[in-house]
Amino acid sequence: MCVFSSPSFDQHELVSFSHHAPSGLRAIIAVHNSNLGPAVGGCRMFAYTSDESALEDVLRLSRSMTYKSALAGLPMGGGKAVIIGDPETQKTPELLHAMGDFIQSQGGRYVTAEDSGTSVADMQTIAERTEFVSGVDAEQQFGGDPSPFTAEGVYLGIKAAWQHISGSKELKDVRVAVQGAGAVGLNLTQRLIESGAKVWIADVNQQRLDRAQKLGANVVGVEDIVDMDVDILAPCAMGGVINDQTIESLKARIVAGAANNQLARAEHADHLRAQGVLYAPDFVINAGGIIEIYHQRANTQDQAQAHIERISQTLHTIFKQSEQSNTSTLSVAEQLAENTFKNSALEIAAAYAVSNNA
Ligand code: NAI
């Protein structure tokens, strides 16, 4: 396993590994970029099949966090942590404490939050060993689960994408395929159905499907959801959904969902564009959770809501610029984000030069 030659390495500032034999912790923290502020991102626990896949995941996810926070206008950098292990069987208080010690040892360069395989309760356990957990400070309790806020942003993003291709602000009778009936997928489904959309949903977990059905969604098999003949595909399960195998048979006109790293490779954004599919870049549309995490610290929920609503405006700008420049929505979104976090580095360097010359 090599970090610097990994295909997902992109000038990351820090990649740190920890092994704690007594608890069995094996974890990686990656800080992609901290020009805009301390790197904030979730701590994922997953039974990775290899160390390489854990490294790839943390490198890609931390990079996405830099772009996500920059485009959401947050004074935060991009980071992520992964714990290698099955959250159902290997998560213990000792392991979470060891993770807390690991985060603390980074001195604040990385601030953690809940993610797939970790819960708010796990964050409370981690916070017994480190101050660098988002959503807690001396006066404040945990803000709780960010998923409803992510779902709100995805819902607004879906509306923006639909308006862009149809001119309509309404989702009545619009057909949406939701992959994943998890925390975000279920919440999104509820909002879509309340708006009059028709929803098909797939999951590997029957209990979650039962809940989706009660909301009024139609259940389909996991093999069938991605290439359904619908208006919108909303990936809300895992990354890499748009890949060499799935892209050709895609029938949806829009891909807009919560999952991180929906495209297996960046070139798939160009393929989608060539096929006439409008792609809402994942790190733009799924920023609701990180926006809420930011506002937990000082501001009110109203401010968080107003901030999340700006996701629609950002997407409208990206869609328009993509058309005008004949480039993919992903390229446009990355360029806009880089204009923010890379220019910020130039400003810092210029200020440093001035202070050194003074
Ligand atoms: P979750 O873990 O609650 O839900 C994921 C669901 O996908 C589970 O119900 C799981 O059974 C299902 N699933 C797994 N494999 C599947 C397959 N092959 N086909 C269909 N369903 C499958 O996760 P959550 O919180 O709902 O997040 C969904 C996605 O959005 C994840 O990729 C996450 O990284 C991303 N995301 C979530 C945020 C949040 O605030 N929760 C914020 C930003 C991104």
Any overview of this molecule?
The chain contains eleven helices and eleven strands. It has about 350 residues and is of the alpha/beta class. Strands 8-7-6-9-10-11 form a six-stranded parallel beta sheet, with helices on both faces. β1 and β2 form a beta hairpin. α1 packs across α11, α2 packs across α3 and α4 packs across α9. The longest helix is centred in the C-terminal third of the chain and has 29 residues. The protein is globular. The structure holds 1,4-dihydronicotinamide adenine dinucleotide.
Taking the sheet with the most strands, its summary is:
6 strands, parallel
Number of helices: 11
The string of secondary-structure elements, in order, is EEEHEHEHHEHEHEEEHEHHHH
**What's the shape?**
globular
For the biggest β-sheet, the strand order reads: 8-7-6-9-10-11
Model regions low in confidence, pLDDT < 50 over at least 5 residues: 138-142
The residue-averaged pLDDT reads: 93
Q: N-to-C terminal Cα separation, in Å?
A: 46 Å
Strand content: 15-25%
Keywords:
single chain; 358 residues; alpha/beta; six-stranded parallel β-sheet; five-stranded mixed β-sheet; 11 helices; 11 strands; 44% helix; globular; binds 1,4-dihydronicotinamide adenine dinucleotide
